[in-house]
Design goal:
Butyryl-CoA Dehydrogenase, subunit A, domain 2; peroxisome (chains A, B); six-stranded mixed β-sheet; lipid metabolism (chains A, B); homodimer; flavoprotein (chains A, B); alpha+beta; fatty acid metabolism (chains A, B); three-stranded antiparallel β-sheet; 25 helices
Chain lengths: 691, 691
């Protein structure tokens, strides 16, 4: 691959720094490096790769077989208990899972449905008895299953689901029922074809009391005939915008009876006589605890989105260092795309954001492992984990879509060919922005946390879009720490003397500016909302709604700050001076483009002078030019090989074609058979006429 | 459909205004209303609709048959000469063509390849003899054909193509040759399967002189066997990110001989003895003239992108007025999505932009018809048309992608289902951003025009990314008028007394602010580039490149101004007072969101005070709330019926399901069988404990 580097990319930049690609690559692999490398080996296997152009039926069949390969290769059981053949390794499990996105996002998400959702629910919500009974079959794929939570009528608002599980003491059974069409379970993976069983979420009713959402193990299909069991029904969601290897569908239940013991009873149980008990007294907190396993999905999607962004940028930047277009600077040699300022503007800030998101993800993953391994598993830790996952998953999944699209356009028509991966990955990742928590809803969850950290007033917040979804979180717990920890350090001298944007190169200044913005936005919106939580419901909701946009932008600002902090923290671990220098510049690019993106805010709030603001964009352009020689190194450090990229334009074919063309013209010129250009003749005639 | 309106949407808004949907619908149909309505009837035919989930091979077969239906239905010949069965109606032809996007973008673009490119090239570049010989077969689809211009190696840089057509006086033939792989024609529609012939663009060489790019009629395949003729070859581009009904492919020619008379010789001819002649002396201008027919493609894509945006917004806004989520304001009734501020922020500014783009497109279409009908066909008119088409096509195709994506996300998981259209349309329209002129290149063409209007210095600009592509335009013509006509009216009092954003409601103020920005940006970049055009090529290119980003942003600002002006001009034609009021507010929303988008510029250039800037966002939120009751009327005015929308979520099914659920709960509550909520019991117990 090395000999494909253009001279410009080979150069070490005007500052003499150069990147130690191998060392940077190791740093990017993070704490679970070995597992990541194993998973990449797996993802490189041709039999796991997406085949384009299959019908959705063929794609589903292939994906199901591929899940079998994952089992054979022992690639998906790391999170399960050691006594059942797993390794109780939660962080490692997610690390490996994330890497599967390069093989086929359908394989990844179908594996996520089977083991990350269905299996995890049995593991986390069930007793040891439940685990022993069902996990072996789930792990081996003998029992393909569903995670039947979402209903048509309520999407992200899980607390409002309408499916009921009513206890009948006469038969010691629960009766599972979907009373109307809006209560049908929808978008359920494995529901249309493969699922033999499901964990069904339903309102648990016993002795006339609704104890809220609980999870039940329900058999769906006869394992032999694959027909639905009596009372169970469903329809196929058919073709989707992507992820067509997964058989999503709807499920409905007409008074389906299951044994009492099929209630996954870790956080709530019903005795034979119908009496309810729970180790968690508060229904809100109980709901939150049961939904806590969902965070794993968000953590995984964050990592998968980062991986897809890396693949896209490697392909597009490789191509941009080879592809030439328009002869700007010479009569015979055209300019390499990445030497155009606009092309740098399109790709390099996205590269910087990808690095920031990658380092932020690694922090999130460690936090996740701390909680799920039990190493640090306080309520506070869980709250922090929820907030971080919501913040990072939203930003990174949107970033992946944006990056895939920009890369696709930056490669022109070639970018549109499915063989170059962008369009296919983009179609599959599209839904990452709205599943496992709609990004817009998740950012409101983050905003809620920021408000609660800011003022006790909002701690018991219980309405609006912030309501149902987070009711458990709001009801019982005191939150603090992650939210505004950094902001207190804000130093109020950001309007200081230097007038050029160069002053923004200073790390502390960047931090101050980003943190000050978060702090100010939180304070402003909290002030605007003051008292709203105690008003009559309708009035309070109205006031909240009038500030909904601000709330979401505040959450985004907070998430950006956390990404910047993660990038900056990661710099400390980079020992090679050249790599450190280049990566610091990349971090500066990230910080500066954030400030540029929100420049209106900085200006209208008096945080930056007009004079300095005007120098920002040209300064960023200079930073881009300085980073350009390192661009290829920075994407090579992602460590994806041809078996992961699988893009024709990343193979060096463009350079080969150009060499062939160049050689042709060289020979032609030498032969003196080359036709003369009419324009040249006209110029000569003109010159002759002037004499 | 009317009874699906929510009470909120039925209301006439707090200002008492209401929209005359029918009259507004007629205004939107524009000058070729009858043809549009005919074309919509055609596009509503089930046999022309996209069937999802076909393999690309099946989709190609279906699309080819669908082209036959278009011929039968007399839907695609309007531009051709009356003597051959057409109607010499260029504006009408494009109007009808645009509407086909709602049936299947593949059908639209395949029709565009056959008649808009291949047929148009024969018509515009050939003699009457050529027309009589080939057009009947092209019109009837007896000769499916290709427009073989783009080469792998040169994409948008058409002047640099490497295919040669060398005249051999011994046999009175041209020899068509692709000397190396980079010269292969690429992304050519109809090339992989259906094309029997092609208009091939090649460097015309005779008597040792290269006279530049000319077009040649070349037979590709045996009409009976469908095998390539000797010397012709190609490969299938296979699956793409979308538009898979079109058989794109590569073509190559190994010294293929064609009769001398197959040169489409309207703008350049070779006599039997090999002598070259042309009615256009300048090679640059000749090139530009021959490429002039390409503008039709850009005009059409602009219109198609607007149509797709309309369809998307109708579906998403219909759903947003029915779908309820989270009970913010009441215990039993959830809030309709479109009542959420953020949802308004996501959809309504895009609705305003769609109106602006629609009115701008109508202006472009009339300009196009003026030029192609010969009514106003000066060089200046052609230049204006080129500039407008480049400006509007770039903005509207990007806008369509952005709108389709936002609508898809705003509908959550339902938006991801292919049956709801967004993902399918988005995949197909993706390439609109880079074909028929890459948007980034087109905006540079606009920037070039702005510079030339600003100063003579840039009139002969001939390098950089602005070079090859526009060389003909730069070389011979004096440009003026469209570029900066409005800017001279700038009144320098924009920093006037009023301090609230409400002052921006004033039409003249909006115009001043938008126009001032364009003028200032042009002047600044022109100053920065001063002298660069006369510097040594390499140095000049470097300076240009250092300002490439600014150039592109300047062009975008100009295009936005033109859209705003088109919207404002269209208001004059709206006579119904209620409609005028609502549409004026929508135009304000468009203007205000443009100012908000570029607020950093206005602030750092002292065009708006910090104080006023801070009031802008809340003011826009109030405008959104005022427009919200009219949202459904504004999308209904687009006039697309269920046969065009074909989206399950736009059928009222969501409302039906909710009514069913609501009725269930009403009955349950009345029956007193309803389970009591555990939370309610706890609250009661708590209250009891307090007593």
């Amino acid at each position: 691959m090395t000999d494909l580097l253009t001279p410009a990319a080979k150069a070490s930049g005007d500052d003499g720094a150069s990147v130690d690609v191998a060392a940077l690559g190791r740093a990017l692999l993070g704490r679970w490096a070995d597992i990541r490398l194993q998973a990449r080996e797996l993802a490189g296997m041709p039999e796991l790769h997406k085949v384009e152009g299959l019908t959705h039926t063929e794609h589903r069949e292939r994906a199901f077989k591929q899940l079998g390969i994952l089992v054979e290769q022992n690639g998906v059981h790391r999170a399960f208990p050691s006594r059942l053949g797993g390794s109780d390794d939660h962080g490692g499990n997610v690390s490996g899972f994330e890497e599967l996105v390069t093989a086929d996002p359908s394989v990844q998400i179908k594996a996520g449905v089977q083991w990350g959702l269905f299996g995890s629910a049995v593991m986390h919500l069930g007793s040891q008895e439940h685990q022993d009974k069902w996990l072996p079959g789930i792990m081996s794929l003998e029992i393909p299953g569903c995670f039947a939570m979402t209903e048509i009528g309520h999407g992200s608002d899980v607390a409002s689901i309408a499916t009921t599980a009513t206890y009948d003491p006469a038969t010691e059974e629960f009766v599972i029922n979907t009373p109307f069409r809006a209560a049908w379970k929808e978008f359920i993976g494995n529901a249309a074809v493969d699922g033999l069983a499901a964990v069904v979420f339903a309102q648990l009713v016993t002795r006339g009391v609704n104890h809220g959402v609980h999870a039940f193990y329900v058999e769906l299909r006869d394992p032999d005939t694959k027909e639905f069991l009596p009372g169970v029904g469903g329809i196929d969601d058919n073709i989707k915008g992507g992820l067509n290897g997964i058989d999503n569908g709807r499920l409905h239940f007409a008074n389906v009876r299951i044994p009492r013991t099929n209630l996954l009873n870790r956080y709530g149980d019903v005795a034979v006589d119908g009496s309810y008990s729970s180790p968690i007294a508060s229904p809100g907190r109980r709901f939150f605890t049961m939904l806590g396993t969902l965070v794993q999905g968000r953590v995984s999607l964050d990592g998968a989105a980062v991986a897809a962004s890396k693949v896209a940028l490697k392909i597009a930047i490789q191509y941009a260092t080879e592809r030439r277009q328009f002869n700007a600077a010479s009569d015979t040699e055209e300019v390499v795309l990445l030497d155009y300022q606009r092309h740098q503007r399109r790709l390099l800030p996205r590269l910087a954001t990808t690095y920031a998101a990658a380092f932020a993800h690694e922090q999130l993953l460690q936090k996740f492992d701390d909680v799920f391994s039990g190493a640090h598993d306080t309520d506070e830790d869980r709250q922090d984990l929820e907030t971080l996952a919501a913040a990072f998953k939203s930003l990174s999944t949107w970033h992946a879509l944006d990056t895939l699209q920009e890369c696709r356009e930056a490669c022109g028509g070639a970018g549109f060919m499915v063989e170059n991966r962008f369009t296919s990955l983009r179609a599959d990742l599209d839904v990452y922005a709205t599943f496992e928590g709609d990004n817009t809803v998740l950012l409101q969850l983050v905003a809620k946390r920021l408000l609660a950290d800011y003022s006790k007033e909002f701690r018991n917040l219980d309405f609006g879009v912030l309501a149902r979804f987070v009711v458990g979180q709001a009801a019982d717990l005191t939150w603090h720490r992650t939210g505004l920890r950094a902001v207190a350090q804000f130093v109020a001298d950001s309007g200081s003397a230097q007038k050029s944007a160069k002053a923004l190169k200073d790390e502390d200044t960047q931090h101050e500016m980003l943190a000050d913005r978060v702090q100010t936005m939180v304070a402003e919106v909290a002030t605007a909302l003051k008292g709203a939580a105690k008003m009559p419901k309708e009035k309070g909701a109205e006031i909240f709604n009038e500030h909904q946009n601000e709330l979401i932008e505040t959450a985004r600002a907070h998430a950006e700050l956390l990404q910047w902090e993660a990038f900056t923290a990661a710099l400390r671990g980079i020992t090679d001076p050249g790599t450190h220098k280049v990566l610091t510049r990349l971090r500066d690019l990230f910080g500066l483009t954030l400030i540029e993106k929100h420049l209106d805010w900085y200006l209208m709030n008096g945080r930056i002078s007009m004079q300095r603001a005007r120098t920002l964009s040209p300064y960023i352009n200079r930073v881009l030019a300085k980073l350009r020689p390192h661009a290829l190194d920075l994407v090579d450090a992602f460590g994806y090989g041809p078996e992961h990229l699988r893009a024709t334009i990343a193979t060096g074919i463009e350079r080969e074609r150009q060499d062939e063309a160049r050689e042709y013209y060289r020979t032609l010129r030498a032969s003196k058979d080359a036709p003369v250009d009419e324009k040249v003749l006209l110029q000569k005639a003109k010159a002759h006429g002037r004499k």
